[in-house]
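hey so i finally got around to running the thing on that chain from the lab meeting. sorry it took forever, my laptop kept dying and i had to restart like 3 times. anyway pasting the input first so we r on the same page abt which one it is
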Amino acid sequence: MKKNEAGPTHLLLDLWHDLQQPDIYWQLIALLACLGLAWGLAALLQRRAPDRQGLLKVLQAQAFPLLALVLLVAERAALEAFMNVHVIKVAVPLLLSLTVVRAVHHMLRRSFPKALWLHSVGKFFSILIWGWLALYLTGASTEIIDALETVSFKMGKQEVNLWMILNGAVVMVLTLLASLWAASLVESRLMGASDLDSSLRIVLIRVSKALFVMLAVMLSFSMVGLDITALSVFTGALGAGLGLGLQKIASNYVAGFIILLDRSIRLGNLIQIDANTTGVVTEITTRYTVLRNLVGVEFIVPNEALVASIVQNQTFTDSRVRVGTSVAVAYSADLEKAVALLEEIARNHPRVLPDPAPLALVVMFADSGINLDLGFWINDPDQGTGILRSEINMEIWRRFRQEGIEIPFPQREVRLLGGGSCNCCHGAGPE
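ok and heres what got predicted. didnt touch it at all, straight out
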């Protein structure tokens, strides 16, 4: 919002005077011609490129008001020397306000897609923009700006007034919205880049968002007229706060960037921190990492814990892991046949990899039977191994029964030897 140095303008009053002039019809014809041409060009763009993405999609959605605005500005400059063009002068800020309202609503939806307050904030911005347009058309905006500029005070060496504060707040909000919207465009483009590693994409998204927000703050300060060097006080205080009271938070953020950059932990990895904390990595932020186990429980792990402690990453370089189960057979069983059956059962399961091939080993000659161990490899450990072991064991039990291979269980023989008497039961014997 800029102050009009030429004094108050009453566009609505000038338009009322033009309505009583004969050239009003030529103004209306010129206005309708520009609007019709802009509408046709916008429709042509929609038909020619219906699947545009990112910035081109936004420009395509705003094609009609933008084209109409450009055409009206050019038409006003061409006709102003020959006749009054107050109809076009009123249409230009109307179209500009429409463009700004639609752009703000789009940036809000793109920057905060799940926010519950989205509708209320969008409505507030619409009222603010259309209200300022009404003040501008009636010429009241200049008087309001002059009144706000009379209330001034000093902040250090900088003289500040109410108009500068309000203007700066609006400019800062709009530039922040624009920066978040631009960051969302970069995020959508990076997330679609399948050739980039997921961790690297997250790093680039976080860094780009921080850079866009920083650039928006500095740009808004410059547009308002505040000295950017005033930010040095804030950054110094922030550094002191991080050094004194925010060590843990700062270390988590640093650890988050380390994890994202060295790619030691990536999305989809199956990791285990301790006996009770294991799961698949579903989200990596700059402060924490989210793990989700097989029963749906989610663990929020500070990034510092992943950097400073030992982490078991089962899918770090290779997603294949070995799974095993054990069974015993009786000493009377055909040992070679039992080993071949175990390997065949594992090979027939759809989750078991053919390479490396399943392998059954004779582990030990135990008291009750011969212990066998079956090992096989899978490449989807994030799906769990409990059900897989259960299915393999059930098939082992069924096939062993069919083939007559006995699975032993511990047995004990108790022998009672006669020929004597117990003193504890019958008292003392004869002397």
